[in-house]
Specification:
The complex is a heterodimer of chains A (260) and B (103). Chain A is mainly α and 260 residues long. Helices cover 72% and strands 4% of the residues of chain A. Chain A has 12 helices and 5 strands. Chain A is elongated and about 75 Å long. In chain B, strands 1-3-2 form a 3-stranded antiparallel β-sheet. In chain B, a hairpin with a 6-residue loop joins strand 2 and strand 3. The longest helix of chain B is centred in the C-terminal third of the chain and has 27 residues. Classes of the chains: A mainly alpha (260), B alpha+beta (103). The interface between A and B is medium-sized, with 35 and 24 residues.
């Protein structure tokens, strides 16, 4: 057996490997559990490399050699280095900031169009706080959301429906004498918060794509001849969530001007 | 690993040959990960003529010291158990299962 230390070729993402494609369900569940635990991509790739190498030697499928993928991911993570990436929580915080800025900013656009000052009341602040808390907690519900998408999705939808109804009621009361006037012109708020949304979107895009070589799930094993389509695709995919809220903000602003 | 760098499948094979049964990957690799986390081994990936590659584990100085310490403790424990069994050996051999369970 001739062996040479170290694999010097460019790292290859695990999704391009034939072993991972052949055992897609097991490998996806394993990677997902480690991702939810904020384990860095290369560490996940190394753990999956151990599985692939071992299964190649024994001829067993991963389910026979390593059991349930989620249980094994928890077990191997408990015994591994506590190194973590911020990923999921940073994205959640940036998303929550964007949504809050969008809710207040689009309300300011409507007041700008109608020439009225922006007002708020306690109920509106309460609704904003609930929305922010729900968005910040999203990483906590990701696991049940992936395991039972319909049940968890319905619960989330119900929460947002209640908050939306409360917001509408609170907005209707915003013109009453109990409401407090924001001492800043609505135009300044609308434009300023749009800038904030853009800045947060840029940060989110950088978080999703920045230093991709640092956090991609790369395999330490000898690369297989495959086109690097996943790496080229990732930049475009990251644009969608990053641009979603600025686009919605802009659309609501334009519609308010056109139909306001 | 005391004999030099080795990899998971080879370790499982040696344990099986020594009569420890079929050690599954799900049991073996978390233990190796613990050794790695505690810096008792260093690892490196090597390519071979066949297969996608192997992760080799090599004992560090700390790992070798821990091995010596563990062996010493195991020999002491094993000797103590041996002496204990030898001292009570006759009683164990001549007792009935029911008398042992009621003891």
């Amino acid at each position: 057996m001739s062996e040479s230390p170290g694999v010097q070729a460019a790292p290859q993402e695990v999704w391009e490997r034939s072993f991972v494609r052949a055992h897609q369900e097991w490998c996806s569940a394993f990677v997902l559990e480690l991702r939810l635990r904020d384990v860095p991509g290369p560490v996940i790739g190394e753990r999956l490399g151990e599985v692939e190498g071992h299964c190649a030697e024994t001829g067993e499928p991963p389910s026979a050699a390593f059991g349930d993928p989620t249980d094994y991911a928890r077990e191997i993570d408990a015994e591994s280095s506590p190194e973590r990436v911020s990923g999921v929580w940073t994205i959640a915080a940036l998303g929550a900031g964007q949504v809050l800025a969008m809710l207040v900013g689009t309300a300011a656009v409507r007041n700008w169009v109608s020439g009225e000052p922006l007002t708020y009341n306690v109920a509106q602040l309460g609704c904003l706080a609930v929305v922010a808390a729900a968005l910040l907690c999203l990483p906590r519900v990701l696991r049940p959301l992936m395991a039972r998408p319909w049940v968890a999705g319905a619960a989330l939808f119900a929460l947002f429906a209640v908050v939306a109804a409360a917001s509408v009621g609170a907005a209707a009361a915003s013109g009453t004498p109990s409401a407090t006037v924001v001492p800043v012109p609505p135009a300044v708020i609308a434009i300023g918060l749009f800038m904030v949304v853009l800045a947060l979107s840029w940060l989110e895009y950088r978080e999703l794509t920045g230093d991709p070589a640092d956090d991609r799930v790369t395999s330490p094993l000898a690369p297989e001849p495959r086109a690097d389509t996943a790496a080229r695709r990732s930049g475009w995919i990251a644009l969608v969530p990053a641009l979603m809220i600025p686009t919605y903000y802009l659309a609501v602003g334009i519609l308010s001007w056109v139909f306001g | 690993m005391a004999d030099g760098p080795t990899y998971g499948y080879a370790i499982a094979g040696r344990l099986s040959d020594a009569g420890f049964g079929d050690i599954k990957g799900g049991t073996l690799y978390p233990l190796l990960a613990r050794l790695e986390k505690n810096e008792l081994v260093i690892v490196d990936w090597r390519t071979g003529d066949t297969g996608p590659g192997r992760k080799y584990f090599t004992l560090t100085d700390a790992g070798r010291a821990e091995l010596e310490h563990g062996l010493t403790r195991w020999e002491a424990f094993s000797a103590r158990v041996g002496v204990h069994l030898a001292a009570g050996g006759d009683a164990l051999v001549h007792s009935t299962p029911s008398s042992r369970s009621s003891a």
